[in-house]
From TrEMBL:
Protein name: Aminotransferase class I/II-fold pyridoxal phosphate-dependent enzyme
GO molecular function: pyridoxal phosphate binding; transaminase activity
Pfam families named among the record's database cross-references: Aminotran_1_2
InterPro entries: Aminotransferase_I/II_large, HistidinolP_aminotransfase, PyrdxlP-dep_Trfase, PyrdxlP-dep_Trfase_major, PyrdxlP-dep_Trfase_small, TAT_signal
The entry's keywords: Aminotransferase, Pyridoxal phosphate, Transferase
Family statement: Belongs to the class-II pyridoxal-phosphate-dependent aminotransferase family. Histidinol-phosphate aminotransferase subfamily.
Signal peptide residues on this chain, from the entry's feature table: none
Xref: CDD domains: AAT_like (cd00609)
Species whose genome carries this gene: Pelagicoccus albus
Aminotransferase class I/classII large domain boundaries: 58-381
Keyword flag RNA-binding: no
């Protein structure tokens, strides 16, 4: 970015310039966007189709991979209707959701763990398989929750740097399994890259690796792929291998705030984790959340809608990156990772100061990156204008 531009933006921040004025200036500086579209970005920070209101943030949050399309209108209705049953413990909807997941996954209900977000399951798994002087093998970078918790109770983390393609290096991960390894953590699609591993390669890997210890496959973002069901490792669970496939309602289903996730695994592993996890029947998710998740699970039309909208936004953003000569890692999810030439934190801070858009700066193996969640088109218009300035 030209130093005078950075100075001007920082000066504007100091002067507490209001965003409407900045947007006008940015539109002029960016040249390619119309003022009305930017005004819409300001007025409508979130998608309206599902009937949800504007965001509760006082900024635009493109840093934690929330689904800007929100939950299915049917899920909203189900949650509203169930509020009056809030006095009941959530046993009934818990068991119903569990059975519905089991049926669709082709397993028995005792192979399904439902938790307060998949974080709940990640944490419980780290306690079961990551203690007693054991080690966990994972790719680096990857999603950090299970790794962080495992470290806290003394587990050694064997992190294998990503491959040249910036994907988990499966052969090296396999070769790094030790006698004391209690678990392998693979995130597919990967966070923060948004890349998929080739299905057969991952299947072969899971078959081999699971001879030594359980493999946890975090499929939090799999619903964003059109062929999600053909990419999942669920069939290995059905074959009886010690694989834990973990999913969440926080992403494509737009229920991040309701805290529901689940895992499908062997009956033995489900029992082991089940005895140690926080949720159980009454400990974790609420009645309302569970009913929302049930309705969201049934509404496949909404998931298709979210998937299509996200793809449109992602494709458009990739074209934008091409147009400004910005490298990116092609993604199958609701976020993208961009290698950048300057300090990523400085870029993110400047963008925030200028647009109130929050993105996630990263330093990976000595290289600066930005991880950006896909917003709705209006948010993305504002983002593109900001990036055009801060990346130049
Ligand atoms: C890969 C991955 N797994 C799991 C989670 C946890 O999600 P939740 O606890 O909302 O289900 C996230 C959240 O961002 C994620 O990116």
């Amino acid at each position: 970015m030209a130093p005078e531009l950075l100075e001007a933006i920082l000066h504007q921040k100091k002067m507490s310039m209001n965003r409407r004025d900045w947007i006008k200036n940015a539109a002029i500086a960016g040249g390619s966007l119309t003022l009305p579209s930017l005004m819409r970005a300001q007025a409508q920070p979130t998608a309206k189709k599902s009937g949800i209101g504007d965001s509760t943030y006082d900024f635009i949050n493109l840093s934690i991979n929330e689904n800007q399309w929100g939950p299915s209108p049917k899920a909203i209705k189900a949650m509203e209707e169930k509020v009056r049953f809030a006095y009941e413990y959530p046993g009934v909807p818990f068991q119903k959701l569990r059975s519905e997941i089991a049926e669709r996954s082709g397993v028995e209900a005792d192979q399904v763990l439902v938790g307060a977000g998949s974080s709940d399951i990640l944490m419980s798994t780290s306690y079961v398989f990551g203690k007693d002087n054991s080690s966990i093998v994972c790719s680096d970078p990857t999603f950090g929750d299970l790794i962080r918790w495992s470290k806290r109770h003394g587990t050694e983390i064997i992190s294998i740097p990503w491959s040249e393609e910036r994907k988990p290096d499966l052969p090296k991960i396999l070769a790094s399994i030790r006698e004391d390894t209690g678990l392998i953590y693979i995130c597919n699609p990967e966070n923060p890259t948004g890349t998929f591993l080739e299905k057969e390669a991952l299947k072969d890997f899971c078959r081999e690796a699971s001879k030594k210890c359980p493999v946890f496959v975090d499929e939090a973002y799999i619903d964003f792929a059109a062929d999600a069901e053909s990419l999942t490792m669920m069939e290995l669970v059905r074959e009886g291998l010690p694989i834990i496939v973990c999913r969440t309602f926080s992403k494509a289903h737009g229920l991040g705030g309701m805290r529901i996730g689940y895992a499908v695994t062997s009956p033995e592993i489900a029992k082991q984790i089940g005895e140690n996890y926080v949720s159980g029947v009454v400990g974790g998710s609420s009645h309302v959340s569970l009913e929302g998740a049930r309705a969201a699970y049934a509404d496949e039309e909404w998931i298709s809608y979210v998937r299509e909208q996200t793809k449109k936004v992602r494709d458009d953003f990739m074209s934008f990156c091409d147009s400004i000569g910005q490298e990116y890692i092609p993604s199958h999810t609701t976020f993208m990772l961009l290698p950048v030439k300057k300090d990523s934190k400085m870029i993110a801070d400047t963008l925030y100061a200028a647009t109130k858009i929050k993105i996630s700066p990263r330093m990976i193996h000595g290289q600066n990156y930005l991880r950006i969640s896909m917003g709705n088109p209006a948010q993305m218009d504002l983002l593109k204008t900001g990036l055009r300035l801060v990346l130049s």
